[in-house]
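The instructor's notes for this session suggest beginning with a concrete chain rather than abstract definitions. Hand out the sequence below and ask the class to guess, before any prediction is shown, which regions might be ordered.
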Amino acid sequence: MHFQSRFAHPPHPQQNNDINAPPEVMLQRLRGRMGKWYDLARLLPALHSQGYDSSAVEETTGLEKRLQGVWQAALPVHDSLRQSHALSDV
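After discussion, reveal the predicted structure:
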């Protein structure tokens, strides 16, 4: 049984376009943990480029700076595994 898939939020319908969304939309997704970690991790650099540092993201969303760092460090590994087909879409 996959507990994460059973209890995870459903995928957000506009995941791919969210990095171009207004900061308020990206912050709302992070605050509500609306999506999988690797989709949410993609929002962090977009927010940083719009002037939100990790402290501001933590204050606004509750997503700890430490976890932001873990997500950003793990994202390239995840993407590499996905490209090599070592990961499934589950």
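Then share the key points. The mean pLDDT is 85. Residues 65-83 form the longest helix (19 residues).
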